[in-house]
Predict the structure.
Amino acid sequence: MPVMNICENVLQVGANDPDRVLFDSLMPTPHGTTYNAYLVIGKEKTALIDAVDPAKKSTLLRNLKETGIKKIDYLINLHTEQDHSGSNPDVLRRFPMAQIVGSAKIQEMLHTHLHIEPEKVKVVEEGDSLDLGGRTLKFTMIPFAHWPDNMMVHLVEENILFSSDLFGSHFSTDKAFSTASSEQRYTAKTYYAEIMMPFSQKIASYTKRVREMGPRMIAPAHGPVWYDPDMILRRYERWTSKGVKKMVTIPYISMHDSTRVMVERLAIKLSQKGLSIICRDLGHELDSLTVETGHFITDLVDAAAMVFATPTVLTGPHPNIAYAAMIANAIRPQTRFMGVVGSYGWSSQAVKTLDLLTPNLKAQRLEPVQAKGLPTEDDLKRLDVFADDLADKIIRLPDLIS
Ligand code: FEO
């Protein structure tokens, strides 16, 4: 990533990582990501907001050199996770006069994760500010967006909000600002699903606070700067609301096509009722477990229902479906209904196991439909009843969104 101007004397000096295919060894990042670092130059002092992932430290150091700055007074860490602090030691070696700035939690976590001594960190609290000389940086705490330590900082005179991970997206680009690209929007949604949805109530309140602040730009720690903040705020307001779409997501595995027959019947019946159906095959290619589960996580931002479709393997659900269920449980979506369908050879504990794997899900459980072996006509009729019941329940929801 080259050095890019955000506005006068505010520069993006971070790094692109277009080849990164997975984040947290969990979430597919088909468009790579960026580790944003912003240089704010005042009349007297200069601040660097965040460092970058250690794998990209040379890009950060090269960019800092290219700006021609001779000193950094403050290295502000908005969040401790290593993709934003891992190259702190390298920055400090080049600019030994720089003072690390963070909250008390960041001070504690920098010690835990990078063994940075607490006395090296200048602690700031809610509402504190740093004067750079004609430029003021004011701090706001946003714990659990998505670690206990996150904070934002507002460049008052330019009305730019540096929002840490909040409002980020995994989208590698050499353009500083967001565009109308639908892919960019989708990566923001995927990012929200994995990183922010587990804390949706807190995220809703932070979104409200940012809406009230009315920044003219939002500069997150990943992905492009939101030049029109309404674009991302509107989406966060919708994603954190209770509203769901008339949509059913069906992660499935089929070993000998019995479960596939059931998925097809279910999808057709639900479609005939006017619902949108997304079927996610978690086993069709070697990497489909990760990739399709990643899409399934994104579906859960606004799907009204999830139906796990699984054969029985050694009495339980197929392990790929168990994996998807565990992730769904961890990210705590608003999804209203949960069902299980599938086949078994001689006996099955698949439904019970999936229930045990999803204690956090508040979704109403539907009566499961399991077929012994290849589904009979009676089994398919039971699926039709399942589909009718689910469709009726969804259509009656009071808070559907389009
Ligand atoms: Fe992008 Fe939570 O680090």
